[in-house]
Amino acid sequence: MKKIGLYFGTFNPIHIGHLVIANYLVEFSDLDEVWFVITPQSPFKVKNTLLDNNHRYQMVFEAVREYPKLKASTIEFDLPQPNYTINTLVHLGEKYGGDYQFCLIMGEDNLAGFHKWKNYEMILKNHDIYVYPRIADESFHHQFKEHPRVHLINAPIMEISSTFIRKQHKLGKNIRPMLPDAVWTYLDEMNFYR
Question: Residue 104: how many CB atoms within 10 A of its CB?
């Protein structure tokens, strides 16, 4: 059975920080693949800084094209909105049956608020969670640190954000080294975030 890590995000745009973390997980943990699950734009919250779903998918697709263990996933594009992670997990379980074991990937900061997620107990009962570190003023104290399903991964700490990239690009700064080449080319050709 293949173990798949699900890395959720808007990826607006995907950057080298995302790739470094995902690649670290497939090379240095027991995950066989990491799927970048692109969060669709919610029809209830139109954010003018969020690119269209298909453009963000295309950038993720371009970014992972040369990495066979990394995949771009549009699985959430067809689910009713607003969507919850538990719905995505149930949907994936129904779609792929017993072939795959799905796990969540999240930052340590997200784990601190995990108890507020819809059906979080059910997620923990059925899915492993791989947690990558974040820089924080104080270490995150949360009830899940000792949980057998929660795996703290010693991945490199990546302090690059999509927000920072968008903002600096708009100001005319060179953000190219922070993006995979194919993503930079696509973003530049489409004149995004200007």
Answer: 25
